[in-house]
Specification:
This protein is mainly alpha-helical and about 100 residues long. Helices cover about 45% and strands about 10% of the residues. The chain is built from three helices and two strands.
């Protein structure tokens, strides 16, 4: 029997955008936290976060070997995804909506 396409299987109610959007193809981490993110964060929101994360790492010279740096990024990620105030890179300006 052929599998029927189910659009719901490819979407998630994104906690950042508060709407159904395409979900990430794979969990971003190989653990329960990664699965929880895949279940609650859209691919669009995750890609936006990874851009912010890269800027924070580069600007602040963060080492991913440093537990404090990992803790900082985790805190900022949660704030970003929950639409709360988070630390932005100094050179960051929002894209214009034109």
């Amino acid at each position: 029997m052929a599998e029927t396409f189910n659009p719901q299987a490819n979407t998630v109610f994104c906690r950042k955008y508060q709407q159904d959007l395409p979900k990430m193809a794979h969990p971003p981490f190989p653990n329960k936290a990664g699965q929880a993110l895949q279940d609650t964060v859209s691919d669009k929101a995750w890609k936006e976060w990874t851009e912010q994360q890269t800027m924070l790492i580069n600007e602040n010279h963060l080492s991913m070997m440093d537990p404090e740096a990992k803790k900082f990024l985790t805190e900022q990620r949660e704030k970003f995804l929950d639409n709360e105030e988070y630390v932005r890179a100094q050179g960051w300006t929002p894209e214009s909506k034109d």
